[in-house]
Design goal:
about 140 residues; alpha/beta; Rossmann fold; 5-stranded parallel sheet; about 20% strand; Universal stress protein; UspA; Universal_stress_UspA
Length: about 140
């Protein structure tokens, strides 16, 4: 029996929303809470080249604020009696998800796969695959 929360990492995509249904179902099945995690990738910019009119930290803060707004809207739409916790982190998505898993509050991860195949699979980092291979708890990958 699972005793830790169900972690649902999201990028707010349609594919991720499909995984949310499974995350809620698993949390209800095991009578545990749901933890929603969004990771804001750290923007890269060199201030010497003036590529950005604002600093990377300012851009990341703006992205975090936008993610918080999306999180509030998502919570307003959820129709559940579950205890729901939200977290917004900054950094590499895979590493931040794994850090959240290592907090020992998480009993299972429900994550969406974007289902890339062929050359796209090799060109883009597959966060779901990386998390599934490295997590110390069960991971349900939803397509």
């Amino acid at each position: 029996m699972r005793t830790g929360k169900i972690l649902w990492p999201t990028d707010f995509s349609e594919t991720a929303s499909h995984a949310l249904r499974y995350a809620i179902e698993m949390a209800n099945l095991y009578h545990v809470g749901l933890k929603i995690l969004h990771v804001v990738e750290q923007p890269i910019g060199d201030e010497n080249y003036m590529l950005l009119a604002i600093t990377p930290d300012e851009l990341a803060k703006s992205m975090e604020d936008e993610a918080a707004d999306k999180m509030h809207k998502l919570l307003a739409q959820l129709k559940t009696e579950l205890k729901v916790e939200t977290v917004i982190r900054r950094g590499n998505a895979t590493e931040q998800i794994l850090e959240e898993i290592d907090s020992d509050e998480v009993g299972m991860v429900v994550i969406a796969s974007h289902g890339r195949t062929g050359i796209a699979h090799f060109l883009h980092t597959n966060v779901a695959e990386s998390v599934a291979n490295r997590a110390k708890c069960p991971v349900l990958v939803v397509k």
